[in-house]
Amino acid sequence: MATVIELLRTLASQHIRLAVEDGQLNCYAQKGVLTAPLQAAIARHRNELVALLQARERADAPVPTPPEDPDGAPVFALSVGARALYLLQRLDPDSGAYNIPLCLRLHGAVDRPLLQRAWDHVLDRYPILATHVVDAGGVARLRADARCRSRIDE
Questions:
Q1: Other residues' Cβ atoms within 10 Å of the Cβ of residue 41
Q2: CA distance to 15, 101, 107, 131, 146, per residue, from 118 (Å)
Q3: 3-state secondary structure of 18
Q4: Which contacts (CB < 8 Å, 24+ apart) does range 80-85 have?
Q5: Which of 10, 20, 49, 132 is the most buried (most CB within 10 A)?
Q6: What's the rounded Cα separation, in Å, for the pair 65 and 150?
């Protein structure tokens, strides 16, 4: 298992549960399930697993209010699911598993001002589309980003 993500998937499929208690990583599994190769993989990824489990515990705790954003842009708390995805991305930064890139090329006559207003309406209705995750005082937060407001190049 090359990555901690692959290891976690394998452990979950084998119904092996991990927990951090007093800084110690503990494994809970039925007898005979925790094989030597799995033990070696757990040992190899121990620090990442402990960090992941401790972060999950912090994610379940109340989220402290972040400091004000320096330029006054609004910041919002991440949902539990978003925090989990953020943590997975930090563990495997080269993965694009949760990104769905989309690029459009329009041909023919386009009413540019109408297209601009339509996109602005979409962003007004779904402001999550104009945010990105930032570290605000050690807490992952969503930050509104005015650059997501498109401008139609003439």
A1: 19
A2: 48, 20, 17, 18, 16
A3: strand
A4: 82/133, 82/142, 83/59, 83/140, 84/56, 84/59
A5: 49
A6: 30
Name the amino acid, one letter, at 130: A
Q: Assign residue 12 a region: left if phi > 0, alpha if psi is -120 to 50, beta otherwise?
A: alpha
In angstroms, what CA-CA distances link 148 with 97, 120, 143? 22, 10, 11
Query: Which of these, 136, 143, 145, lies nearest to 65 by C-alpha position?
Result: 136
Distance between CA atoms of residues 31 and 35, nearest Å: 10
First to last CA, the chain: 51
pLDDT at 66 over 50: no
| Residue 9 banded pLDDT, cuts 50, 70, 90 | confident
Q: What is the pTM for the complete model shown?
A: 0.44
